[in-house]
Amino acid sequence: MGTVPVGAAPGEPLPRGWPTPDRSPCHGQHRLADVRHKRELMAETAGSSVETAVTDAFHQEWGRVVATLIAATGDWDLAEECAQDAFTQAVQRWSGDGVPSRPGAWLTTVARNKAVDRLRRRAVEAVKLEQAALRSPVSADGDEDREGAAIPDERLRLIFTCCHPALGIEARVALTLRSLAGLTTAQIGRAFLAPEATMAKRLVRAKHKIQDAGIPFRVPPPHLLPERLGGVLAVLYLLFNEGYSASAGSDLVRLGLTTEALRLARIVAQLMPDEPEVQALLALMLFQDSRRLARVDAHGDLVTLEEQDRALWDRAQISEAQRILSGTPTTLLTGPYQLQAGIAACHAAAQHAAETDWAAIAGLYGRLAEVMPSPVVELNRAVAVAMAEGIEVGLARVEALETSGALGGYHLLPATRADLLRRMGRRSEAAASYRRALELGPSEVERRYLMRRLHELDDSVTAERRVP
Questions:
Q1: Contacts for 383 with CB less than 8 Å, ≥ 6 apart
Q2: What CA–CA distance (Å, rounded) separates 319 from 321?
Q3: Strand boundaries in 132-265, DSSP class E
Q4: pLDDT tens readout for residues 401-415
Q5: For an engineered disulfide with 4, which of 9, 70, 282, 291 has Cβ 3.0 to 4.6 Å away?
């Protein structure tokens, strides 16, 4: 594909603005400074192997550590605070003692000990202390208790806990992304097109609601799984999406997140083999992940779908995804994940970008817009229409979205408009739209791509002016 340069491309995940956020006000105070303290510590140890080790451990182990502590204590804030303390201590200790062979076990041990110490100091929490001390401890030398290893996946427990129907869909997804993946409140806010302060209040309120209602930290019985399925799938989708197109940092892909999302999706697919949307989400992730190696060049810069070397696509993943979808004809796809997987399948079937069936993709987006109304879906649909029916037709749809204000502040809207204008040869207008997209705070990888396109336009205009 190549019309939308980043993220919103047809066949790519819908990274921002889904589900449609509830803009209602909420109250509370954000207690944690997310990972700002960790980043400050990282700056102090810049250039060292410890910085890399702690950063990697944070990306890979944060959710597991927090999930373990919540299971042991039932206290969300305590779990996050003690996990943060453990990472802080890692910066200090690993500099002198070296990085342990099993960083995750080390961090879990330290965080759990800190939690027990804090509970011990709370006289009114004596019962919790006793319970925490008895729950599957991690040994001091970093070897997890073998019996504890057989307990159902802690992260899956956390997902199902957060996705309790007592919470609104956005709260379910946001709380899980915060606790499971260690995403910052700002990153989660961007996923829902909501201000950071607003999202912080919603997170606090969701945690308090779980605690006040005594919602148990466990996977519900089979007959209760369907009522939580929508939230669980949304969590897995956005978790994969944040890894597939990272909203912050210098890398486009956070491999740990995409791998974890796929792993969890497989578990849910095994739990619910007869749910078409579960199977479709797994297929969608496989289709998207199959393109991972082709999405960046040797310098780590973005390569659009249209320009990718399709020989680098993982054909084994594509075949697996196709097998999952093989029992459902494209015309019978109905759910949002089924339709998105169908779109991704259209791209996977094209050996070359020019062979892409854009008419089919535009049709699938039309049906997706009916079952999952969203301005982000409409933006993707506009691109598919541009490729199928003409750039002018697609541009008209994009400009109608711009006029509506539905995607105000969303950098991919002006980026998409810029790309269509560039294809039409309207260079000055395209350059202005690229500059607008840059002003709206894209990720570092997206910024480099947009700057490259802008420089190409500027060079082209300069060359034209030199022609006598």
A1: 1, 3, 4, 8, 9, 10, 394, 398, 416, 420
A2: 5
A3: none
A4: 999 998 988 999 999
A5: 9
- DSSP per position, 111-137: HHHHHHHHHHH-GGGHHHHHHHHHS-P
- Looking at residue 221, the DSSP 8-state letter turns out to be P
C-beta of residue 433 within 8 angstroms of C-beta of residue 399: no
The reported pLDDT for the residue numbered 52 is 83
Distance CA 231, CA 19 (A): 10
Indicate whether this model's pTM tops 0.85.
Answer: no
Would you state the structure tokens that stand for residue 171, as one six-digit string? 């709260």
Q: Is the pLDDT of residue 100 over 60?
A: yes
Average of per-residue pLDDT across 425-452: 92
More confident residue, 196 or 389: 389
The yes-or-no verdict on residue 438 having pLDDT over 60 is: yes
Measure the CA–CA gap between 155 and 260, rounded to whole angstroms.
10
How far is the C-alpha of 102 from the C-alpha of 138, rounded, in Å?
A: 12
Radius of gyration of the chain (CA): 23
What does the pLDDT read at residue 319?
97
Proportion of the chain above pLDDT 70, given as a percent: 75
pLDDT at 277: 93
Q: How far apart are CA 138 and CA 67, in angstroms?
A: 14
- DSSP symbols for 8-75: -STTS---SS-SPPP-----------TTHHHHHHHHHTTTSHHHHHHHHHHHHHHHHHHHHHHHHH--
The rounded distance, in Å, linking the Cα atoms of 165 and 215 is: 10
What would the two tokens of residue 440 be? 């709206």
